Backbone:
Protein backbone atom coordinates (compact mmCIF):
# COMPACT_ATOMS: atom_id res chain seq x y z
CA UNK A 1 0.00 0.00 0.00
CA UNK A 2 2.90 2.37 0.58
CA UNK A 3 2.96 5.39 2.83
CA UNK A 4 -0.53 6.38 3.91
CA UNK A 5 0.12 9.41 6.07
CA UNK A 6 -0.75 12.75 4.56
CA UNK A 7 0.85 15.92 5.79
CA UNK A 8 -1.17 18.73 7.28
CA UNK A 9 -0.47 21.80 9.34
CA UNK A 10 -0.65 20.33 12.83
CA UNK A 11 1.19 22.44 15.38
CA UNK A 12 3.47 19.95 17.12
CA UNK A 13 3.94 22.05 20.25
CA UNK A 14 0.19 22.02 20.85
CA UNK A 15 0.01 18.25 20.72
CA UNK A 16 3.13 17.18 22.59
CA UNK A 17 1.86 17.51 26.16
CA UNK A 18 0.75 15.68 28.24
CA UNK A 19 1.05 12.30 26.51
CA UNK A 20 4.62 12.26 25.19
CA UNK A 21 5.75 9.69 27.73
CA UNK A 22 3.44 7.15 26.11
CA UNK A 23 5.07 4.26 24.28
CA UNK A 24 3.14 3.34 21.14
CA UNK A 25 3.29 -0.05 19.46
CA UNK A 26 2.99 0.39 15.68
CA UNK A 27 2.01 -2.81 13.86
CA UNK A 28 1.96 -2.91 10.05
CA UNK A 29 3.23 -5.46 7.54
CA UNK A 30 4.10 -2.71 5.05
CA UNK A 31 7.58 -1.50 5.99
CA UNK A 32 7.22 1.96 4.43
CA UNK A 33 3.89 2.60 6.17
CA UNK A 34 5.29 1.34 9.49
CA UNK A 35 8.37 3.56 9.17
CA UNK A 36 6.25 6.58 8.18
CA UNK A 37 4.04 6.15 11.25
CA UNK A 38 7.09 5.69 13.45
CA UNK A 39 8.70 8.86 12.09
CA UNK A 40 5.51 10.87 12.54
CA UNK A 41 4.97 9.69 16.11
CA UNK A 42 8.58 10.26 17.16
CA UNK A 43 8.39 13.79 15.71
CA UNK A 44 5.55 14.41 18.16
CA UNK A 45 7.64 13.12 21.05
CA UNK A 46 6.23 9.63 21.41
CA UNK A 47 8.39 6.59 22.01
CA UNK A 48 7.68 3.92 19.39
CA UNK A 49 8.11 0.16 19.22
CA UNK A 50 7.35 -1.52 15.89
CA UNK A 51 6.23 -4.93 14.67
CA UNK A 52 5.58 -6.33 11.19
CA UNK A 53 2.77 -8.72 12.14
CA UNK A 54 0.57 -9.82 15.03
CA UNK A 55 2.99 -12.47 16.27
CA UNK A 56 5.81 -9.92 16.51
CA UNK A 57 3.40 -7.48 18.18
CA UNK A 58 2.57 -10.00 20.92
CA UNK A 59 6.31 -10.49 21.49
CA UNK A 60 6.89 -6.71 21.66
CA UNK A 61 4.08 -6.35 24.21
CA UNK A 62 5.70 -9.03 26.37
CA UNK A 63 9.13 -7.37 26.04
CA UNK A 64 7.89 -3.79 26.59
CA UNK A 65 5.44 -3.58 29.50
CA UNK A 66 5.59 0.22 29.20
CA UNK A 67 3.57 0.20 25.94
CA UNK A 68 0.52 2.38 26.47
CA UNK A 69 -1.27 2.27 23.10
CA UNK A 70 -1.45 0.01 20.05
CA UNK A 71 -1.68 1.42 16.52
CA UNK A 72 -2.25 -1.48 14.13
CA UNK A 73 -3.15 -2.17 10.55
CA UNK A 74 -6.25 -4.29 10.01
CA UNK A 75 -5.13 -6.48 7.13
CA UNK A 76 -1.88 -8.35 7.76
CA UNK A 77 -0.62 -11.77 6.77
CA UNK A 78 -0.08 -14.42 9.39
CA UNK A 79 -2.09 -16.21 12.04
CA UNK A 80 -4.05 -13.07 13.04
CA UNK A 81 -4.95 -9.79 11.42
CA UNK A 82 -5.01 -6.58 13.47
CA UNK A 83 -8.60 -6.92 14.69
CA UNK A 84 -8.13 -10.58 15.63
CA UNK A 85 -4.95 -9.64 17.51
CA UNK A 86 -6.85 -7.00 19.51
CA UNK A 87 -9.66 -9.43 20.31
CA UNK A 88 -7.03 -11.96 21.43
CA UNK A 89 -5.40 -9.36 23.67
CA UNK A 90 -8.76 -8.43 25.22
CA UNK A 91 -9.42 -12.11 26.00
CA UNK A 92 -5.98 -12.28 27.62
CA UNK A 93 -6.82 -9.30 29.84
CA UNK A 94 -4.87 -6.63 27.95
CA UNK A 95 -7.04 -3.52 27.84
CA UNK A 96 -4.60 -1.09 26.19
CA UNK A 97 -6.29 1.52 24.02
CA UNK A 98 -5.92 0.77 20.32
CA UNK A 99 -6.31 2.38 16.94
CA UNK A 100 -7.12 0.05 14.07
CA UNK A 101 -6.37 1.42 10.60
CA UNK A 102 -7.08 0.28 7.05
CA UNK A 103 -7.81 1.51 3.58
CA UNK A 104 -10.83 -0.79 3.17
CA UNK A 105 -13.21 2.15 2.89
CA UNK A 106 -15.53 1.39 5.81
CA UNK A 107 -15.35 0.89 9.57
CA UNK A 108 -15.20 -2.81 10.44
CA UNK A 109 -17.99 -4.13 12.65
CA UNK A 110 -17.45 -5.62 16.10
CA UNK A 111 -14.39 -3.58 17.06
CA UNK A 112 -12.76 -4.71 20.30
CA UNK A 113 -13.34 -2.59 23.41
CA UNK A 114 -11.21 0.57 23.76
CA UNK A 115 -10.56 0.51 20.00
CA UNK A 116 -11.18 3.24 17.46
CA UNK A 117 -10.89 3.06 13.67
CA UNK A 118 -8.89 5.41 11.43
CA UNK A 119 -9.25 5.15 7.64
CA UNK A 120 -6.18 5.24 5.40
CA UNK A 121 -4.95 7.54 4.11
CA UNK A 122 -5.09 9.57 7.29
CA UNK A 123 -3.89 13.04 8.14
CA UNK A 124 -1.25 13.50 10.82
CA UNK A 125 -3.64 15.56 12.91
CA UNK A 126 -6.32 12.85 12.79
CA UNK A 127 -3.90 10.21 14.06
CA UNK A 128 -2.61 12.42 16.86
CA UNK A 129 -6.17 13.42 17.82
CA UNK A 130 -7.20 9.76 18.01
CA UNK A 131 -4.20 9.03 20.24
CA UNK A 132 -4.99 11.91 22.56
CA UNK A 133 -8.67 11.01 22.81
CA UNK A 134 -7.87 7.40 23.71
CA UNK A 135 -5.18 8.32 26.23
CA UNK A 136 -7.39 10.93 27.88
CA UNK A 137 -10.29 8.51 28.32
Residues:
Amino acid sequence: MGATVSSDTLDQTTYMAPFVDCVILVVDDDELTRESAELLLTEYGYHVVTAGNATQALDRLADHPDIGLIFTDLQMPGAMDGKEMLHHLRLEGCDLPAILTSGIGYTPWNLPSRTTFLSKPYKQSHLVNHIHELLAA
Q: What stands out?
A: The chain has five helices and seven strands. Residues 9-17 have pLDDT under 50 and may be disordered. The chain has one domain: 16-136.
